[in-house]
Amino acid sequence: MKFINYLQSIAGVGIFPLISLLLFFVFFAVLVIWALRVNKDYIIDMKNIPLDNKNETPQL
User: Fold this and answer.
1) Structure confidence at residue 8 (pLDDT)
2) What domain count does the chain have?
3) Which residue has the higher pLDDT, 1 or 23?
4) How many helices (H) and strands (E) does the chain have?
5) How far apart are CA 11 and CA 21, in angstroms?
6) Confidence at residue 19, expressed as pLDDT on a 0 to 100 scale
7) What are the b/e assignments for 29-60, b being 16+ CB within 10 Å?
8) Long-range contacts of range 20-29, CB-CB < 8 Å, 24 or more positions apart?
């Protein structure tokens, strides 16, 4: 028996791709809205974290 036959035997299996698409769209829509509304100083601070030496632990 092929895999597609197993999927066809599940009642309501057609809703799962729709739910997945909806979650994908909502996640990225929220991410875009957050990226457009976030404070630009916060972005600059996060961008400079790898180059910032004040939080670095001393090496022995």
Assistant:
1) 73
2) 1
3) 23
4) 3, 0
5) 19
6) 94
7) eeeeeeeeeeeeeeeeeeeeeeeeeeeeeeee
8) none
* Residue 57 located in a structural domain: no
pLDDT for 18-54, tens place per residue? 999 999 999 999 999 999 999 999 988 888 887 777 6
Q: Is residue 33 part of a domain?
A: yes
Q: Residue 47's domain spans which residues?
A: 27-51
| SS3 label, residue 50 | helix
> Is the pLDDT score of 56 beyond 70?
no
- Tell me how far apart the alpha carbons of residues 51 and 60 are, in angstroms, rounded to a whole number: 20
- The phi and psi torsions of 52 (rounded to 5 degrees) equal -80, 125
Contact 13, 7 (CB under 8 A): yes
